[in-house]
Design a protein that fits this description.
Helices cover 23% and strands 23% of the residues. It is built from 6 helices and 12 strands. Helix 6 links the parallel strand 11 and strand 12 (200-202).
Length: 216
């Protein structure tokens, strides 16, 4: 982001959870004829964020070597960064993920079936904001970009687009167990891009503050 002034959205097909894109993996039929929609996932891009500011689980999952940072922005800035022209209106979505049990996901599928072809886009987009409740600790907000077949982004391997990094990134926070050496070296790198160092800090998740307790 700092070096190139860009943000990048990956294909949702690259996400590891087997229930990601579950709607597109289902067995569709029209007038008794099987129809597949799995190929459409190769043209959907996304990015995942969290509303949980300092989660022990998230640090442990995504910062194995203790050499990661958490970045902060707003939903408005996230949407505005990719919604750069009216052509993006029908293909850009930002929202909170809803967590359901596997049973509830199947009930949701049963409820939306049969689906009119005019509603297929809305239903498929809604499905991209549903996850199993096993992942509820993520408290996820995600951006989904689903370009139409006639848009130039349709066949990209990754969606990269320019952003105003200084405005977009409101905070950079280091892993609570980061080494002093890694943090100092990385801060030097960050400072070279004129990023306000007042917005750079270290997570205080594992800071221990002693409280004075009087014994009677």
């Amino acid at each position: 982001m700092l070096q190139n002034g860009t943000n990048a959205l990956a294909k949702t097909s690259s996400w590891e959870d087997v229930y990601e894109n579950f709607f597109f993996k289902e067995k569709f039929h029209t007038y008794g004829t099987p129809v597949t929609m799995e190929h459409l996932v190769d043209h959907i891009f996304g990015q995942c964020w969290s509303t949980f500011r300092d989660s022990d689980a998230m640090w442990r999952i995504y910062s194995h070597d203790k050499e990661s940072v958490r970045i902060k922005t707003t939903i408005g800035k996230l949407y505005d960064s990719i919604y750069t022209e009216d052509a993006c209106m029908a293909s850009t979505y930002v929202g909170f993920v809803e967590y359901k049990t596997s049973k509830a996901l199947h009930e949701w599928l049963a409820k939306v079936s049969p689906i009119n072809t005019s509603d297929i886009t809305n239903v498929s987009v809604d499905s991209l904001f549903l996850k199993r409740n096993n992942f509820s600790h993520e408290k996820e907000v995600r951006v989904i970009y689903q370009p139409a077949q006639n848009q130039p982004d349709y066949n990209l391997g990754i969606k990269i687009y320019p952003i105003d990094v200084i405005d977009f990134l409101e905070e950079i926070t280091f892993d609570p167990q980061v080494s002093d050496t890694f943090m100092q070296n990385t801060m030097q790198m960050i400072s070279r891009y004129s990023f306000p160092m007042s917005r750079v800090n270290k997570s205080s998740l594992y800071d221990f503050k002693k409280v004075k307790i009087e014994l009677a």
